[in-house]
Design a protein that fits this description.
Structural class: mainly alpha
Radius of gyration: 19 Å
Shape: globular
Order of helices and strands: HHHHHHHHHHH
Number of helices: 11
Strand content: under 5%
Distance between the termini: 47 Å
Number of domains: 2
Length: 206
């Protein structure tokens, strides 16, 4: 552990504790469901037990037409929690990934884009985990191309680098030969290959 690591971890723990203390004030005026959902997310981040993970997962909507959406400070708090979940997910946490898939039910605009970007990174790091949970939550992904192909704004004007990243993702997914995941894998690869054509044309125009 690095010398400044205990201090950093202590600061993060203090931040989460403050969020839990001030949740009632942040959520004032929100429907009771979203207050409970927000609190469950932060409880899981503070204490990532199996019980806390199930509660956070179950309280989020189960489909894309789940009804009302969180708003105001409650929404801000939920997406702040999502940023904490990102770090856990990128370390290979299946539970954090499952919760983030459920967050697609209340995500639009920049929040949906953020989920696409962060989850997409798992394709190279944990392709098996990515495909397993994508299959389990396929009904929550209305645009698969956005999830597997959004590689970030840094690649928009650099077609050569974009092609390398896309090829890396195709290569990572191609290594997964689990019979139960073949259809999901091939669906993702098809989207990546179609997206690749855009950057191929950009390279030709140089």
């Amino acid at each position: 552990m690095k010398p400044n690591e205990p201090k950093r971890l202590g600061s993060q723990k203090a931040f989460v504790l403050l969020m839990l203390i001030f949740l009632p004030l942040l959520c004032f005026g929100q429907p009771d469901h979203w207050i409970k959902c927000n609190k469950a997310l932060w409880n899981y981040i503070e204490k990532p037990t199996h019980e806390n993970s199930l509660k956070a997962y179950e309280l989020l909507p189960h489909n894309l037409n789940g009804g009302s959406f969180p708003a105001g400070k409650t929404s801000d708090s939920i997406w702040l929690a999502a940023a904490k979940l990102d770090s856990m997910m990128l370390l290979g946490s299946r539970v954090a990934l499952r919760i983030e898939f459920r967050l697609f039910t209340i995500a639009d605009g920049e929040y949906a884009e953020g989920l696409d970007f962060t989850m997409g990174k798992l394709i190279n790091k944990y392709p098996l985990l990515f495909l397993q949970e994508l299959k389990n939550h396929r009904d929550l992904i209305s645009r698969l191309g956005n999830l597997v192909c959004f590689i970030g704004l840094d690649y928009v004007d650099n077609a050569k680098l974009a092609l390398i990243e896309i090829d890396n993702r195709i290569r990572s997914l191609s290594k997964i030969n689990d019979a139960a995941l073949i259809n999901t894998r091939d669906e993702c690869i098809k989207e990546l290959k179609n997206h690749r054509k855009i950057f191929e044309e950009m390279e030709k125009e140089k």
